[in-house]
Design brief:
single chain; alpha+beta; endopeptidase fold (from Nostoc punctiforme); 2 domains; 6-stranded antiparallel sheet; two-stranded antiparallel sheet; about 40% helix; elongated; signal; thiol protease; PGBDSf
């Protein structure tokens, strides 16, 4: 009986496994299983180098598949840029952070395609967004687990990021009402800009340091 059950389980796996869609969480788990350091070789190193190149940290012309000083320095630069322990080792935390950074790079590039979509209070679809609805929509679209909530609740999630350490995909928060509560959120895009849903323009890109937003800045969080 146990043999029949085992054979059935194997058959089910063979039939269904190939049809499963890859997700960033599968990639993250695979990355976490590997620790790379000076002297490591193979396809995992090649993948690491290509990922770091996409993120503008690996400056060698092509991936070599060898973890030498150039790769170590690229890992160190990434770790320093993302506030991680800078040991030059591509271990679980670093590997996961790279996967997350790649996904958020794609998310930010795609977010720009919604510029001009109108503002709608409570909206979380392409017919209209409010600020937290846009965050929910983008995270959900890219497979990041999130519930529909408010800017104030989002501000309680993730890890705090200083303004000098902001990276694309981090959430930036503001206090624009008279109560002093956090009531606005957007995605940091890089180069001092962020994208969010505002009542006057819908999805729109603005600068953190302009005269309106700078004094209302409340902080930033990295939730993925």
């Amino acid at each position: 009986m146990r043999k029949k059950l085992l054979l059935a389980a194997v058959a089910f796996t063979l039939l269904t496994g190939a049809s499963q869609v890859a997700s960033p969480f599968v990639s993250s788990a695979q990355a976490s299983a590997t620790i790379m350091s000076i002297g490591t070789t193979g396809t995992n190193v090649t993948t690491l180098q290509n990922n770091l190149k996409t993120l503008s940290y690996f400056n060698y012309s092509t991936a070599t598949g060898y973890y030498g000083t150039v790769t170590r320095d690229a890992v160190l630069a990434f770790q320093s840029g993302y506030g991680l322990p800078a040991d030059g080792l591509a271990g679980p935390v670093t590997n996961d952070s790279i996967i997350h950074a790649l996904l958020k790079q794609k998310l930010i590039a795609d977010a720009s395609s919604y510029i001009g979509v109108p503002y709608a209070w409570g909206g979380s679809s392409t017919s209209g967004f409010d600020c937290s609805g846009f965050v929910y929509f983008m995270f959900t679209k890219f497979g990041v687990p999130q519930v529909r909530t408010t800017a104030a609740t989002l501000f309680t999630q993730g890890s705090t990021v200083s303004r000098s350490m902001l990276r694309p995909g981090d959430l930036v928060f503001f206090r624009i009402g008279t109560t002093g509560a956090v009531d606005h959120v957007g995605f940091y895009m890089g180069n001092g800009s962020f994208i969010s849903a505002i009542s006057s323009k819908g999805i729109y890109v603005q600068q953190l340091d302009n005269t309106y937003w700078s004094p209302r800045y409340a902080g930033a969080k990295r939730v993925y």
